User: Fold this.
Amino acid sequence: MNDKAPSAVEHIKKRSNYLRGTLVESLDDPATGALAEDDTQLSKFHGFYQQDDRDARADRTRRKLEPAWQFMVRVRVPGGIATPVQWLALDALATAHGNGTLRLTTRQSFQFHGIVKSRLKATIRGINDCLLSTIAACGDVNRNIMCTPLAETSEVHEAAYKVAIALSELLEPRTRAYHEIWLGSERVAGSDDSEPIYGDRYLPRKFKVTIAIPPSNDVDVFAHDLGLIAIERNGELAGFNVLVGGGMGATHGESDTYPRVADVIGFCTVEQTLAVAEQVVALQRDYGNRSNRKRARLKYTIDDRGLEWFRQALFERLGFSLAPAEPFEFSSRGDRFGWRRDRQGRWHLTLFIPEGRIRDTAQHRVLSGLREIARIHTGDFRLTPNQNLIVSGIGEAERPAIEKLLDEFGIRKLQGGSPLRQQALACVALPTCGLAMAESERYLPELTAKVAALLERHGLVDEEISLRVTGCPNGCARPYLAEIALVGKAPGRYNLFVGGDAHGRRMNRLAEENIDEARILDTLERLFARFAAERLAGESFGDFAARTVFDRERA
Amino acid sequence: MAAVPDPDIAPPLPGNDLHALRTAVAGFDYDQLLWASGYLAGLARSAVAGAVPVAQSVPSAAAEPWTVFYATETGNSRRVAESVAERARSAGLAAELQDLRDYKPKALTKVRNAVLVVATHGIGEAPDGSEAFFEFWLGERAPRLEQLNYSVLALGDSSYADFCEMGRALDERLRALGASAVVDRVDCDLDFDSPAADWAARLVAHASETAKPRVETGTRSAHLHAVPKPTVPTREHPFTAEILLNQPITGRGSGKDVRHIELDLEASGIAYLPGDSLGVVPKNPPQLVDAVLDTVQLDAADEVTLNGEPMALAHALSNHREITVISRPLLEIAARQHEELRQILSDRDRLTGFFGTHQVIDLLADYPKPWAAQELVDTLRRLTPRLYSIASSPDANPGEAHLAVGVVRYENFGRPHWGAASSFLANGAREVPVFLEPNDRFRLPADGDAPIVMIGAGTGIAPYRAFVEHRLEHGQKGDNWLVFGERHLATDFLYQLEWLRYRRDGVLTRLDVAFSRDQQEKVYVQHRLREQSRRFFAWLERGAHVYVCGDAGRMAGDVHQAFVDVVRKEGGMSDERAQEYLGELKAAGRYQRDVY
Assistant:
């Protein structure tokens, strides 16, 4: 591969006239449910992906019909906080235009699935009407900014959340194409677009920013291009430890692609944070690999040039050096389910949402139930990085009504499963995701039931073990930081990883390659048996696996 | 294959003569056609200069271009294919690239030299979009490939059990079909660069070595034997065609069930042209025969006589009598015992309505009378063949005819109803009696450069598939504009993949669609014509031939009115003048309709 020649996507971005391409013509073409090929790259910057129902693909080809094209539309929700009015609006859009479900993602955003081309405009306009957006929800730009939705320490959360919003605004694309195409604004003649931070080719690849508020590392702060760990002093937010170069994506069979945990490079004050973020982005813009998209994330820029080079280049651009990192400690990563009360006396209810999918089934009418809750709720909704939901800021008097709705719509019956089940994550995968090689979301309930049964057999069912499944190696459910992970290789076949720690600092390692369910369960069962017999006091499963499986291998 | 004229040479014969020639040679086998071509060539030569034996330079296989095929999921195969083609060209060979996704599987029968770079993905699966190619060539219908020289490079990932499965299967299959492997297959793992390069080098070396033209004298020896006069099937003596394919082409969830039917006409003696229809002689649905017997309380085995031939009643109802569409004699006989029917018979509007809503079974059930078996078969009309516009070009699909068949099946008056022929074709018949119904009033322009506008709704799209296949097959460069209407884009765009490919490749100059139920207000083909008023009139003015095919009831009339409006508006004409304008088009054969 010629490392000098820009990749095809770079050309598409460059000639797109700030993300316009031929999207208008594509939307107006009634003979196909698809966009023109180049526009499928640009659409991501506008917040949506072209996908198809892969279950139907082969059948439709035989019928001489194009694939069942449909779009995944992702909402940008910085910090994962939405008002009840916004909730109701998104619910109505999903019901009217989508497949009647809302998907909560591991980046604290909402996804619509099954939107056909003719409904895209109405959907995106509706999202903007409720003061949310889809711009830069996907694409080679800063994605949805995450922030620990921790409710109990609300002063620090509020300050950190403000930073998340400010970062989101700072790194939002400036092109007017989005407003022209989706919201019907006129093009202003003679006023050219410009992107002061991104430039006309935007970034070489996606860019992910997160804020973690210890002691929770629910956002997996080590898995992002830019991570910020909130440092509290005297009950106030003093600033952030700065982490760079995390990232989950890898490609099967290409050893120069790999997941990487971020490095801590120092501490910045709250006031310095925007400048730091802007310059980290700018460095990646200028030095990131634009010829090979598989090696275009910041983590490779840093590994290719060295962390010390990166620190010096950053400090030079900033005009100051970062202070030494402050001590920090994480003690959890999962969500704490149920009712909790904050210092102001307001209640926060964390609900387990299986696979993050808000929908109605015969037994559990989660979509309808949350709609009713949104109608009476006066606080807000917070999406957790674990695909769950916090109904936040409930007054004492509102509580009984909400309790009643939980029962009435079968939402309570979903709560209280095994810790394994409640912590487990899955990406969307089949049938809509174009990248998926194996099942994930649809497989997770069955898989967790089988694994929980194994744990039960060894007296381990109350252990909080993180299990994550993805349909491909790109890492949407951050699998490489789980204690147990399955990464899809082909239908029914996965790579099995074990040995991540409980708090998301150490990556797991490949234990077995390309194995089927029987082999997965067999391998886990043997590990569980040994774990039950040989674990050290207080040792987590991930630590045990790392200590025994791979150390033995080395010896 | 041998009957296909050179696509670069427009036939110097008028359509009718060409048709006559085709009809005369239809049914000839390979040797007979070869002999006939020699015979005609001899006639031609003696007509100019007397018979002269000729020495022909016959290009050897390798002097012909190499087609480098690839089937790719990730782009690796495409990149390898590009480098093979590049290498071949630098060695002075002609090489062209071909994505198997866009390739008509059968066209491989015309290729002499093929390089196939084939990736396997998932667990032994073909790359997305190339399934049709593999299904065809690995399937039972695959024809022989004696003419083919080939080499396969297989790409795969050895961490899968079925490593390089598609490449291996294809290689073995091509060999079994009589093709010659010039360089043995190589199976490559993820690190394919160097083995692929070695393989390409060997391949190009081999190809260059054999690329020296050789000279052959004379023509191939043709067997001279008595040529039997082929009998052309007729309505009375149809040809029993094998149904090669019965494929639903509306999507799941559609309110319609349309089938793409492929028929084997290889030995039929039928030579058709685009625009022609095929007559189908159906058998009635067995459930309907049972329902009729049950309703009239007669036994399946009761003996009746038809045309002097004794047979069981059930057989007569199944194979010889019309038991779906009501005829007037049946109504009249039933009316003897039912006053209501007598009133209906005397009221034209009510009668029209009755015919429109009732089938034979409804009449027999709701207006009962005692029927004798012989009386019933004597009263019922003869089972009439159904005509379908042929959806294929004979030159693009030698030996085959394709039909687009809308399956008629609905409930009415609390009982099921069927269409006779569509049910027969759709419900598992292996063979069907067919005959040709030529339609010289629905023909492509003789001038291949003339633009055409094809307007159709539903299965009315069928002849246009034949038209465009034909123009493409013969390299005709005229502009093609399709205006198609149905209910829903997602499920009802018949042959959508083909039309989109034609549009992408520039074969279809313009594609307009009207999906009536995808939005609040109903949109039909005539609305699209009005929207494109200026463009449509401009096409007419530059000599376009316009075709309308589909429902005779509403569509044909609405479209005609749209024509009138367009001509009036864009041509600045009176209503009367616009009608004349269209009349002139009709007289010139430039406004043709096939409506039913």
Notes: Chain A has 17 helices and 20 strands. The mean pLDDT of chain A is 95. The interface with chain B takes residues 30-33, 56-66, 68, 116, 118, 252-253, 437, 489-491, 493, 513-514 of chain A (CB under 8 Å).
